[in-house]
Amino acid sequence: MTRTTRITLVLTALLSSGLSAQERLGTGAAEPVYRAGWTFTPAFGFAETYDDNVSLFGEGSVDDQNDDYLSTIFPGANVHYAGKHTSMHVGYMGTFLNYQTFSVLNRWDQQANFDLRRQETARLKWFGNASAAAVPTTDQIELGGLPFRHTGALTADGRGGYEYAFSAKNSIRQSASYQAIDFDRDENVSLGLLGGRIFESMNGWRHRIDSRLAVGTDYSFRRSLVVGDPDPFNIHTTEGAVDYELSSDWSFSGGAGVVYLQATPLTEARTGPSWRARIDRLHGRTLFHVGYLRSYIPSFGFGGTVQNQEMGVGYRTPLFGSRHFYSDNSAVFRDDQPLSSVQQQLPLRSLRFYTTFGWEPQPWVRLEAFYQRIQQTSLRPGGRMERNRIGFQIVTSKPVRMQ
Q1: What is the DSSP letter of 57?
Q2: What is the mean pLDDT of residues 83-107?
Q3: I need a surface site. Which of 119, 167, 215, 283 has the fewest CB within 10 A?
């Protein structure tokens, strides 16, 4: 397994754990190492959290109590298969939220995922994955252009693709994905949350110059339909790309090109720059990454399309020179500017930050203290919202070999 592949697998695991956590904020423990064959892993956790803005209302819009304590339990289980050429993972996690004062917000949220990967031949490997989740608030959804509100949502997505090496220096990769998002609706209240569907195909070619440097091109086509919009939005992105291993620990990947938005009844045709860059460091159990991305994306909150810029940084490391203590930290900033003439559409600037300190006395149990802050502004008077959550959780899980 190459170092670049290992980084990709670790980042995928981190992102998956962050999304599936829902109201659980701790994600610091490393992914388990599975032995060959079938493994069943039941899990159970309990958390206590203080939330200073349970309604997700903006500043100055709430005069009475708007904070609360909530208890969370989250049972789950997964089945993993590791073979010589094939790996498969199926997982489920449920989360029950119990508010001390605002019991009307109590709910049961669920998440499920599936992943299948196979090395078909020395040159060909392919994968397929799918996931579905019910989340209690829109700040739990990793999509730009969404206002943060205490509105439940259902998300579902699937992705499949392959990578084929023509030779030791040339390879192609292709994938297709589909994503859907639907929001809870109250017919008596205008929430301004629309939902919709996205289909995207991605195609890339890489030419390896040497053992550390590869260059190539990437092309993606994204077709999105926002509920209520008369026509779908079609977005084409073409980039030149480079992947470079700076050292045994550090790697860089980036691309630059052009993004083209086809004209619709709501938006005129636009052409703009597309940028992305990412630096990763993987050294033992320590992981660091920082990245920047600029493109056009659909706005499932207000409709239309937005110009999206986002920057993220994350850092996970053991503490005190011990594998039993760890820290996991992450921050993501997004700037979404509307492109269409939809009346309600607003610019949004969003920040998510979390930090976790954990102790793993045994491989089957960990204790974590966490803090999360989110904030968002529409750049208008009264359009600023902030939320802080702090708490602790206990998580147990015990892999069991299946014969």
Answers
A1: P
A2: 93
A3: 167
Residue 281 in tokens: 């460091």
- Give the tokens for residue 328: 């996991």
**What six digits make up the tokens of 96?**
């029950």
Of 403, 348, 347, 370, give the one whose Cα is nearest residue 47.
Answer: 370
The token duo for 391 is 């708490």
| CB 45 within 8 Å of CB 77 | no
Q: How far apart are CA 290 and CA 301, in angstroms?
A: 27
If pLDDT is split at 50, 70 and 90, which confidence band does 139 have?
A: confident
pLDDT digits (tens, 9 = 90+) for 160-209: 999 999 999 999 999 999 999 998 875 444 456 888 999 999 999 999 99
Task: Write down all domains in the chain, each with its CATH number in brackets.
Answer: 3-402 (2.40.160)
Neighbour-count burial for 168-198, b at 16+ CB within 10 Å, e otherwise: eeebebbbebebbbbbeeeeeeeeebbbbbb
Q: Inform me whether the pLDDT recorded for 403 exceeds 70.
A: no
The whole-model pTM stands at: 0.84
On whether the CB atoms of residues 213 and 244 are closer than 8 A, the answer is yes
Q: What is the pLDDT of residues 242-297, one digit of tens each?
A: 999 999 999 999 999 999 999 888 788 889 999 999 999 999 889 999 999 998 88
Instruction: Measure the CA dihedral 293/312/163/180, to 10°.
Output: -80
- Nearest-5° Cα angle at 72, 91 to 135: 55
Mean pLDDT estimate for the chain = 86
Nearest to 217 by CA among 232, 200, 230, 203: 203
Rounded to whole angstroms, the Cα distance separating 294 from 272 reads 10
59 sits in the region (left: phi over 0; alpha: psi -120 to 50; else beta) called beta
Compute the chain's Rg from CA coordinates.
Answer: 22
Secondary element (H or E) of residue 10: helix 3-20
